[in-house]
Structure prediction request, 323 residues.
Amino acid sequence: MKKTALITGILGQDGPYLARLLLEKDYKVYGLVRRYSNPNFSNLDFLGITDRVEFVDGDMTDESSLINVLKNVRPEEVYNLAAQSFVGGSWDQAKLTTEVNAVGVLYLLNAIKSLSPLTKYYQASTSEMFGLGNTNGYQDEATPFHPRSPYGVSKVYAYWMTVNFRESYRLFTCNGILFNHESPIRGIQFVTRKISDGVARIKLGLKKELRLGNLDAKRDWGFAGDYVKAMHLMLQHDQPDDYVVGTGENHSVREFVEKAFSAAGISDWKKYVVIDPRYKRPAEVPDLKAKPDKAHRVLKWQPEASFDALVKMMVEADLQRLQ
Ligand code: NAP
Ligand code: F7E
Prediction:
């Protein structure tokens, strides 16, 4: 019998990489899609797997739709990747962000508890929960949370609900506390893809400048294709637990910009970059760096793509797409 998995957020960045991994492992993959007149399957198309996923209708803000899906599918594994995931937009849409990222998780966990209590659950937690929190310059599972955005706050609620359902009802629930991970199908609003797309357009003469906010922020950037392997490993372990997942190395936005222009053969990046206060945030997370020792030790997980390889992969993909 094939294993079955339900992925929420199947049309985003991580959903398609995870779906591809599970299909390679011979899973039957269901993807939760909310109602659209014109759903956008381009990220699944990019990986060539759209036809191999079975889509089910549902919305994280509509409890009855999640109950129906759980009743009909009864998956062995649920990967909850659905979210309003753009930090920068979460101040303007704080209520929506809370309803999807926090209350939606409560609906999903309740549905699992009532209808399919043996289902293993993965919660897409995030380094944004740490915010200003750090332990000697890095973040690990013991670092206190100090979120700096409505997004970060909503994810802290979801994190603790995931822990609480494990402790209260003995459900198999795990938090993957993932640091930033990117790819050629990263959403265009996020800084890495905004840069790779902008650089490719400048290179091809389609654009004259790239407008950005805070270049000093530092992030621990990895490749999404590596990170979905950690999600899967968490649910295969014999005990449910929470894990920090990152590369252990960080870089500033400025360094990403420099490398991206250089990958396109442009050396004088300062000529093209304009600092625009519209892209600065009311409260910034200045510096994130993972200490993923537990994931290395317990899950035997290691990232493969380097920072340089990631930047190059993204710039080359955007050049190819635009050409
Ligand atoms: P993403 O590209 O923004 O994808 C999120 C998906 O959630 C989208 O497909 C979106 O659907 C779906 N969604 C939004 N609201 C929904 C709702 N009300 N009901 C059902 N689905 C809804 O995010 P990602 O980068 O793949 O990240 C996956 C998850 O990991 C997110 O939970 C994110 O917060 C978390 N995370 C991401 C990172 C990272 O660096 N990428 C790091 C840590 C944690 P539509 O396509 O219909 O809009
Ligand atoms: O910003 C700075 C910005 O939007 C990174 C999400 O996946 O990862 C992501 O959240 C940094 C910030 O990602 C621009 O101020 C400068 O310091 O790419 P980002 P994020 O906020 O780190 C975490 C782990 C998640 O969980 C989230 O879901 O870059 N920055 N100039 C800019 N950021 C953007 N977006 N646009 C700019 O023009």
